[in-house]
Structures are given as structure tokens and as C-alpha cells.
Amino acid sequence: MSPTPMTRTDLSNVQVAKDYTGLCGLVADRIANLVQTKPNAVLGLATGSTPLGVYSALVRRHREEGLDFSRVTCFNLDEYYPMSPKSLHSYRQFMAMNLFDYINCPNWFVPDGLRRSASEIEQDCLEYEARIADAGGIDLQLLGIGRTGHVGFNEPGSAPDSRTRLVTLAEVTRQDAAPSFGGIDNVPRQAVSMGIGTIMDAREIVMMATGAGKAAIVRAAWTEDPTDHIPATWVRRHPNVHLRLDESAASLLLEADA
Ligand code: F6R
Q: Is the CB of 231 under 6 A from ligand 1?
């Protein structure tokens, strides 16, 4: 019997920019366009190094073009646990320092990383989900991708119907965070993260990746069958997902398709 022919990867929802600046321009244009057409849009935002250029592009457009965020609501994907919201390592401070201190968006939320009991965390996670629903649901969810294939902090093993909850970070993820924490021993072992199900409820998803270090996981995310081992593979199943890459992050995916 002849082997089942390989189906070519569907790259119709993939766009590749020449470099990081181009990539951030593409993503910032999409967000700006949404905010202009729907002034009360609800955005789901990510931290990490990948979206930094998107945030500076949005700050520039706010300053120079008056891009208005006054009616926009933003929900961040995750926060380390335990983590004080005042700590410079917190994602709350990250978002303030890289975006919200410089635009006119009063309504922005980051999961609470303060140390508290398991039942209090559970309650707060339910409230985070309820707050997203009350805001009308997320119009556009921005995602990076971790080397484990995590989205948000949904590490391998996360179920496709998972919701906001306390999660345990993979060692690779902690190692990647170690330089900014001054060593792996200072990196929290847990986080509070929106679930895959929470992310999949968004009406549109934009996943972005930059650099050769992400090329292998990008290829896996976009070519492997959906599996809990690579949480980003679930995201590819979203009916309105867009993958935005620079040339280095796209290199192995394009090779796989050649
Ligand atoms: C951050 C987040 C993570 C990052 C991912 C990539 O809020 O949810 O999934 O997007 O770890 O991180 P960077 O962009 O630093 O490579």
C-alpha cells in the first residue's frame, strides 16, 4: 500500500515580515485598525520580549496620531506566582512600563500573583474569567510562543478546555526567564494563567514569533497534529488565527513546506 500522501501545511494564515521591526509593524497595524473600527475593543495581551516592539509602535501611534484607547479594555494572559504587583519582575509592572504608562487606557487587568490560599486563587481566577465575559469577550488575543510550545503559561500537558488557573512552569521556561531574575533560583515555580480554552474563546488570535530560537517550535506548532504536548497546536485550530513571523522564526516552517 502506498503511504498516505503528506498534506502540505496550510500557510494561508501565515505572514512573514523581513525583520522584527516589520513584524511588529504588521501586528501593531492590526491592533490599531481594530481599535479604530471598534473603539470599545477588548484586547488580550502578552508579556515577554516578543511583543515589546508592538507596544512601542502603539505608544508612538497614540502620541503622534492620537490613537485612542480610552474605551479599550485589556486583559493580560498571565502573572508569575507568587509575585507582588509592585515587583519590577511582575508582569503588571512590565505592562505599565512598556505600554499603559504611555497610552490613555484606564481599563487594564493582569491576573493577581499575590500569595494567598488555594481557594482564594481559584475564586480570583473565576472572577478574571467573569470579568472578561462581562467586558464582552476578547476581540483580539495577542500571543507569543515559548520554547516548550506554551501559550500564556499553558505548558505541555495543558488541556484544550483549560481556563484561568494556577499552573506550574516548565524548567525550560524558568531557564529562559533566569537572566531577567538574576538566576534560576529567583524565578517563581508557578504562575496564574488564562487557559487554552480562555484563549480559544477570543474572536481573533494573532500569534507572533521572532528569531531563530523560535523556528523549531513554530514549525512544530503549525505542522503537528493538535496535542497537549505542544499547547500552541490547539491555537492553530482557531477559526480566525493569524501567525505573524520574521524571516528567522519562519525559516524551518517554510523549509517544511518547500
Ligand atoms: C507571556 C506569555 C508567554 C510568552 C512566551 C514567549 O505573557 O504568555 O507565553 O509569550 O514565553 O516569551 P518571549 O516573548 O519572551 O520569547
A: no
Q: Does the C-beta of 202 come closer than 6 Å to ligand 1?
A: no
Q: Is 160 in the pocket of ligand 1 (CB under 6 A)?
A: no
Pick the atom of ligand 1 nearest to 46's CA: 7
DSSP string, 93-149: HHHIIIIITTS---EEE--------HHHHHHHHHHHHHHHHHTT--SEEEE---TTS
- Which residue's C-alpha comes closest to atom 4 of ligand 1? 144
pTM over 0.85: yes
- How many contiguous H segments (helices) and E segments (strands) does the chain have? 9, 10
Please list the pLDDT of the chain residue by residue as tens digits (258 residues): 333 344 457 899 999 999 999 999 999 999 999 999 999 999 999 999 999 999 999 999 999 999 999 999 999 999 999 999 999 999 999 999 999 999 999 999 999 999 999 999 999 999 999 999 999 999 999 999 999 999 999 999 999 999 999 999 999 999 999 999 999 999 999 999 999 999 999 999 999 999 999 999 999 999 999 999 999 999 999 999 999 999 999 999 999 777
